[in-house]
Amino acid sequence: MEAESSLSPLPFFFRKIEPLGRVVITNLCGSHAFVNSIDDVDNIINGNCDIIKSELKEELRAKSIVASEDEYSMRAAMVGSKFASILNSNIVAPSLFLVVPTLRCDHNCHYCQVSRAPISKKGVDLQTESISKIIDIIHAIPNTDIKIEFQGGEPLLAFSYIKEFIIKAEERLSDRRVEFVICSALGPISNKIIEWISEHNIIISTSLDGPAEVHVENRPAIDFGSYENTVNQIANIQSTLGKDKIGCLTTITKKSLSYPREIVKEYFQIGLEGVFIRPLSPFGFASQTWTNIGYSSEEYFKFYKSALDFIIDLNDERLFVEESALIHLRKIFRATEIGFMDLKSPSGYLMGAMVFNYDGNVFGSDEARMLWESTKAEELVLGSIDSDVIDLLTNNNAIELLSDTIICTSPGCDECAYQPFCGADPLYHLATQGDHIGDKSKSFFCQLEQLTFDHLFTLYQSSDRAKKVFDKWLSR
Amino acid sequence: MQRKIIFLKLGYSEEVIRKSLYWLPEGCHWEFSDTSDEWCVTMCSGDRVESYVSDLNRRINDFKLREILDKKTKNLRVRLIQSALSRVADGS
Question: Cβ contacts (< 8 Å) between B62 and chain A: which residues?
Answer without folding.
Answer: 14, 16, 38
